[in-house]
Amino acid sequence: MADTKDRRQPGPELRALLYTDFDGNPADPDDVIADALDDGGYLERTPGLTAILQDPAADPAARLLACCALTSWADPLGYDTVLRAAADPDDVVWRGQSADRFFSQDDTFGQLADAVGASRDMVDERGTAGLRIAAARALISLAGRVQYDRHISSLLSREIVEAAQGEIDATVGRGITRLASGEHIPYDLGLQLALLTVAMKTYDEPGANDAMIRLAAAHPGERALRELADATGSSLWSL
User: How many CA atoms lie less than 13 Å away from 158 in the CB half-sphere?
Assistant: First the structure.
């Protein structure tokens, strides 16, 4: 989970739900979210987190954490909230409530990507596999517009890539055009696009190779070029 927990002290409701383990001890939200899956503990904490997520007066950072928890648990409301956020990313209440440590840029959509990815093992139990795929496709469509950094990899499992080929192709194309325009982009868009082009190789190797060449020509940065080199086994990308 992100820097949301470092920005302010959680309120009593959120502290009880995500900062307290199932033995009543202080805990990290990441651990609580993971432990809640072991014995069905997520069921007892879902109503409280649902109330926080749906409360427009609640602290935005608390709502982000609630969304990430519910999404990690493959909850329909979590996925629906991700879909609505992806539909209007510039007007999401919790934008700016979490920042990465590398670029100090908003990474709230990266947190949502991780939550969608982490929910993979729960969707069969909860009957929400289709919602997970829909949420992943919506997030991938934003990868040319918002920061994910390496969080984008959480959306590149086999079953998501198979379902999101159209979104990947379109996002890579738009992203390369944006890079090539010379626009100042305050995060590493090149890395995100490189990871997507590597994923393309699983279903369209010629198209992926062409995209990699176009991406390299757009000066995507050293991290992106290293990804291309690692994926192809060629050091020529770094020359």
Answer: 0
Give the separation between CA 25 and CA 8, rounded to whole angstroms.
19
Rounded-to-integer distance, Cα 80 and Cα 184, Å: 32
Q: Cα–Cα distance between 26 and 155 in angstroms, integer?
A: 31
53 in Cβ contact with 112 (< 8 Å):
no
Q: Is pLDDT of 4 > 90?
A: no
Residue in this structure with the two tokens 């289709």, named with its chain if needed: 130
pLDDT exceeds 90 at position 232: no
C-alpha distances (whole Å) from 69 to each of 17, 48, 79, 163 are: 10, 11, 11, 24
Dig out the tokens for 202 from the structure: 């699983």
Nearest to 80 by CA among 148, 138, 154: 138
Tokens found for residue 114:
């991780």
As a whole number of angstroms, the distance between CA 141 and CA 152 comes to 11
Tell me how far apart the alpha carbons of residues 181 and 52 are, in angstroms, rounded to a whole number.
Answer: 41
3-state secondary structure of 106: strand
B/e letters for 127-142, b = 16+ CB within 10 Å, e = fewer, are ebeebbbbbbbbbbbb
Q: Please tell me the distance from the alpha carbon of residue 192 to that of residue 49, in angstroms, as a whole number.
A: 31
Bridge partners, 26 (sequence order): 20
Q: Please state, in angstroms and rounded to a whole number, the distance separating the CA atoms of residues 181 and 228.
A: 21
**Model confidence at 228: pLDDT above 90:** yes
